[in-house]
Write a structure and sequence with these properties.
This protein has 276 residues and is α/β, with parallel strands linked by helices. 32% of the residues lie in helices and 20% in strands. It has 9 helices and 10 strands. The strands form 2 sheets. Strands 2-1-3-6-4-5 form a 6-stranded mixed β-sheet. Strands 8-7-9-10 form a 4-stranded parallel β-sheet, with helices on both faces.
């Protein structure tokens, strides 16, 4: 069970600061927290963008059990989005972090955060925003388990106070209500596009909790990628979940299946999962 959380937003990040400004209203009294041993969170605002490891005080970060990055999401297509993902690079590190390395994360924490985000969007009538997972991408690389939660995709959305309120409440709700053993099946996602439509449905409507997602555009997916995703998942991984059509050509599918057979790892298709 995580007890000490750190929420990070760069002083240069518009959406991150907007979210951070909303967070104090959800902080429980330190005295009450100590009496009940309730989870607590602190806030850290580095000067430079937090996707770059060198911008961060790693000694400070390592004093916490779990890290949440509040940030902007940028997209050339624009659109109103609230998104969740883990940082890391499957190949070349173009925006922070290191080549071929990803951060630790918790599939259970991500699932519960995604569910609470969806519920808060409905509760506070913010349905013009799309709630979505993103595949694992960009930096930083830290040793603590972590997740990004973001507002996208333009300055109009980044400065939206209601969107920031919903994100801040979702962060606080997940911290205060996180269940470390809710009997979910744990999976790594393979295939599909960046915004993971098939994995979104599974994260929200099934018993499966997803941690890392390796998208089709990272292909060819390698044994090292799969092992890195498994090693950087806090929980024991039950199986690999494949977006079958999202893996592209049949040769790539077979190559991935051969890797999974070699590693003695169980796999399922997204279409096999009950989403009622």
């Amino acid at each position: 069970m995580y007890k000490k959380y750190l929420v990070i937003a760069s002083k240069k990040n518009i959406a991150g600061l907007n979210i951070i400004n909303q967070l104090p209203q959800f902080r429980k009294s330190p005295v009450m927290a100590s009496l009940t041993e309730a989870p607590t969170f602190d806030i850290y605002t580095p000067e430079e963008e937090a996707i770059y490891t060198e911008s961060l005080d790693l000694n400070k970060i390592n004093r916490y059990d779990f890290v949440i990055f509040a940030s902007t999401h940028k997209s050339e297509k624009g659109g109103k989005t609230l998104s969740i993902h883990t940082p890391g690079n499957w190949r070349t590190a173009e925006l922070g972090g290191e080549d071929n390395r990803v951060c630790k994360t918790s599939a259970l924490f991500q699932k519960q955060m995604f569910e609470k985000l969806k519920a808060n969007v409905a509760k506070y009538e913010l349905e013009e925003f799309q709630v979505t997972l993103e595949c694992t991408h960009h930096g930083p690389l830290i040793s603590r388990p972590c997740v990004f939660i973001e507002i996208g995709s333009t300055e109009e959305e980044w400065t939206n106070r209601r969107a920031a309120f919903v994100i801040a409440k979702t962060i606080a709700d997940t911290i205060h209500e996180f269940e470390s053993n809710p009997y979910n099946e744990i999976a790594i996602g393979l295939g599909g596009p960046h915004y993971c439509p098939n994995f979104n449905k599974i994260q929200l409507k099934s018993n499966v909790a997803l941690s890392h997602i390796i998208p089709q555009y990272a292909a060819p997916i390698t044994e090292e990628m799969i092992q890195e995703a498994i090693e950087k998942t806090e929980e024991e991984v039950d199986f690999i979940l494949i977006d079958w059509k999202g893996l592209g050509v049949s040769e790539e599918r077979q190559r991935v299946l051969d890797i999974l057979d070699k590693l003695y790892i169980q796999w399922k298709k997204t279409s096999d999962i009950n989403k009622d």
